[in-house]
Amino acid sequence: MVELDEYDKKIIMNMQEDASISNKDLAEKIGLAPSSCLLRVKNLKEQGIIKKIVPIVDERQLGYEVIAFAKVDIKPMTHDTTEQFINAVSTIPQIVECYTITGDGCFLVKIVAKDLVDYRNFVLDKLTSIPFVSDVDTSMVVGVEKQTYSVPIE
Known about the structure:
Blueprint: H1 6-17, H2 23-30, H3 34-46, E1 66-74, H4 79-89, E2 95-100, E3 107-113, H5 116-127, E4 133-140
Antiparallel strand pairs: 1-3, 1-4, 2-3
Helix pairs in contact: 1-2, 2-3
């Protein structure tokens, strides 16, 4: 775990709120000179604390009406089959998140689709065609009550 000082914490909190904030505005908000602020942001990136700065896109505004979470089992679950699954998933744009999990299922994937027919075709044509996939258990999102990408900074 990395130790952060108050300035680093303020940088992260402000950038989590609005990553498009200019360096000048960020520096002003946290009480640093712009050059010092820029250096700190660069250091946070180099340390891997700030992984990426990307826009958060509303799936539905782009026509993806179906958002689903699927627990996916692979059999047998070995180092090799797991690696093959992860490599395959990384090439499929409709799978926007993938986690290795415990409990029921080996993986939890978040999938976006244009509609239910598109989702059905995706599961049948792409997801179950990945070698070693043995089961797919889907939960459909019917409402988004909270969605954040911010990590609490203490």
